Amino acid sequence: MSLKTSQLPSLSFEQTLNSRYVIGIDEVGRGCIAGVVAVGAVLIDLENIASWPAKLQDSKLLTPKSRTAMFDEVSNWAKAWSVGLASVEEIETQGIIPSLGLAASRALIDIANVHAKLLTEHPTVILLDGNHDYLGTKSMGFKVQTKIKADQDCVSVAAASVLAKVTRDNLMVELAESYPAYGLDSNKGYASADHIRALKEVGPSPIHRLSWLTKILAE
User: Fold this and answer.
1) What is the mean pLDDT of each run of 10 residues along the chain (219 residues)?
2) Tell me, what's the pLDDT at 118?
3) How far is CA 87 from CA 12, 175, 215, in A?
4) Hey, what domains does the chain have and what are their CATH numbers?
5) Where is 177: in which H helix or E strand?
6) Rounded-to-integer distance, Cα 93 and Cα 89, Å
7) For residues 97 and 90, what is the distance between their CA atoms, to the nearest angstrom?
8) Three-class SS string for 20-86?
9) What is the model's pLDDT at position 218?
């Protein structure tokens, strides 16, 4: 089996959850020094599910061009989806983990507002990438199942990762027009060498997570 084939996600894990509906969740931008954090949520119906896009993978394993091309395929395939955001101000005041929960809850609310009846009448599980339940009390009463590498192994979470990544990347490209010094269109807010160099030359902007820059700016 090739490496590429071994990385393709399936429904094998979702089908062990004893639930009709699964909401796959994944975050993007957690480790950035600028910009929002984004959390994607994708609802699937295990009893009535069409074939997902053949090349669907964790967004980190796709090229930017492939992710963008797949966005419409994934969004049309999902029963429902949303991407929730938490602002730089929320990250600074509340911390990154609570902000992930806040962004995830916003995506969940979007989905629940449309599908409240079916989600309350049938078993529904949230499948969260990683080993930490950052939703906590914001899970809207749904059971939360965490799984390390769910973004690589599970179709619902891989789909959420693509939608979240493309959404956030597009936001960062837009911000690059207002803050051209930092190369946000290429680094997407991560601490690349050019990004750090620009920070030291012109200082931080309103979209930077200032509390994350103390060590960088001191060097």
Assistant:
1) 59 96 97 98 95 93 94 96 98 97 97 90 94 95 96 97 98 97 97 96 96 87
2) 85
3) 35, 13, 22
4) 3-218 (3.30.420.10)
5) helix 155-178
6) 6
7) 11
8) CEEEEEEEECCCCCECCEEEEEEEEECCCCCCCCCCCCCHHHCCHHHHHHHHHHHHHHCCEEEEEEE
9) 81
